[in-house]
Structures are given as structure tokens and as C-alpha cells.
Amino acid sequence: MKHISILIPQGAILGSLEGSRQLLTQVNNFFRMRGQEPLFNVQLVGITKETPLSGGSFTANADLLIDEVKQTDLIIIPAVDGDLRIAIEKNKDFLPWIARQYQGGAEVASLCLGAFLLASTGLLDGKKCATHWLAANDFRKMFPEVELVEEKIITDEQGIYSSGGAFSYQNLILYLIGKYAGHEMAIMAAKVFAIEIDRKSQSPFIMFQGQREHEDETVRKAQAYIEEHFQDKITVDHLSDLLALNRRSLERRFKKATSNTVSEYIQRVKIEVAKKDFETTRKNIYEVMFEVGYSDVKAFRTIFRKTTGLSPVEYRNKYNKEVMVWG
What we know:
The protein is α/β, with parallel strands linked by helices. It folds into 2 domains: 2-203, 3-Layer(aba) Sandwich (Rossmann fold), CATH 3.40.50; 217-326, Orthogonal Bundle (Arc Repressor Mutant, subunit A). It contains 15 helices and 11 strands. It has helices at residues 14-33, 84-90, 94-103, 115-120, 136-142, 169-181, 183-192, 217-228, 236-243, 247-258, 262-280, 285-291, 297-308, 312-319, 321-326; strands at residues 2-7, 40-46, 50-53, 58-61, 64-65, 74-77, 107-110, 128-129, 147-148, 154-157, 160-163. It has a 7-stranded mixed β-sheet, with helices on both faces. A hairpin with a 2-residue loop joins strand 10 (154-157) and strand 11. It is globular and about 65 Å long. 37% of the residues are buried.
């Protein structure tokens, strides 16, 4: 029997905590229905016996405290909310325990913003990790040694797992069920809980808002110019001349401030405008393409798919309300 420790951090988001417990215990029910022994021993593990959640609206009761768990097979770190630096400080007692358990052979999975707690252990240094796309900029600044893969729903590296935003934690739990209990059990759980099991990317859900939380005023001017002139063919050299800054300095400072190269930022701004057009208008691909400054339909399709994980037509069909009603 595999021992699974679902942590109860202060500030834990109840959905990912209880949702994980429900999925895993349902697998035990599947085994019982077949006349077999349950596979998982699922326990809630806390720093204290009672942890208030959702501003005190709910209370999670721990089955065990961390000092009482000498060995476990899998640790699940639920998502947390609020100020993430404060969340890390409040839950710092978990961190050395997680690291010790991993060194002792346990696997570790973070759900959504739980990645901030996992990264604080140092176990993610040099590894890939996913988290909610809204927190991507903060994560990169706080944990530069971790390779954030913003578009991924799931990562799996050396017994360390992570999931992307919000309800994508369900896909990671299904993935772990498949790994421990077999693909058939994962399919059954997906059907019972009505979860799309084959989601691989959160790119279609990412809304690019520009990285403004920095102090470089020159880079802010470059960002503003790009956002105001998205329909033009903007080059790095043109921006350099405009800002009276040599190209190399601009690219270095821009990357440091925004975590994007200038060219990446230009592309992402253009694609974000194109996405809004596909969501809210009946313009065809050529009209949208020209409005955001592209003249080569193949290049536009390629960049659009790379950014969103969908073709322009697939994106419009998925998110345009008129297409959804009348399509």
C-alpha cells in the first residue's frame, strides 16, 4: 500500500486539497468494488492539528503532524493563496521535512501555486516546473534557478511533479493515479469526475498582460511603444534609436526586467490582440493578421499556435461566443 501525505499548508486552497483526497480515495473504492485491497493510504498531514482555510470559513483537521510521519511515498502540496512570500514564511516548517522525505525516497507533487512552497525547498533547482500562468513572473524572480515551463499542465522530473493553473491539479492527480494504479484506473477516475484526461497545455488560457513590476523606466517606455504600435513592423533597432540606447543594452535590460526578449514581447503583444479579435469579432484570419502587423499567413499561424497551442481557427471556434452559439 502506498502512503500518500496531502499537506495542509496555512492558506491552502480547499479545492485542490479536498479534490486530490477525493480522487485518490475514489481509486481505493474502485479496488474494493473489484474485491481487491485498497492501493492508497491517504492522510492529511499538518503542522498543527487544525488549520483554518478560506479566511476561517473552513477548518482542515490533520490525521498526523509532520513529526509523526517517519516515511511516506508521495507528498502532495496543495495550492496556496494570498501573498506568496507570506505563505512561504507561514509554512516554513514543512520545507526541511519535505526535503528529508524526498532524500529518503518519497516523491513530491505541487499543485498550482503550491510550486512556490516546493521551490522553496531547493529541490526544484535545475529542474522544470509548472505553476499558474498568472504567477509566472513572480515565480521567475523568486526562483531563478528553476526552469519554469509556463505552458505546461504537468511536469515530471526525477520523482518531482508539478501542475499548472487552478483545476489542472486534477490532471496531475490523474497522471499519478495512472503511474501508481494503471491507466485503466486513471480513465475510470476521469470518467467518474468528468475530467478531460488528455490536456497537455495551459497555453490557450494564458492572458499576456505585460510584465510591469520592475523599476526600469526605459524598458517601460519600450513596452508602452510596443503596445501602442502593435500594428506596425517594430524592430529592435528602431526601438534602440527611439530610446537612444544601443541594441545590446536594450536587449539585456529588457530581458532582465520582463523575462522576455524584445522580439518575444512584440510577438506576445500582437498575438494577445489577435486573440481578443478572435474572441469578440467575426473577422477572418487575414483581417486579424493584417491588423496586428503580419503579412505572411504561414508565419502568423505558426506563431499563434506556438503561443496558444491552437491554430487561429481552433482558437476562434473555442472562445468566440457567436461561434459557440451558432457554430
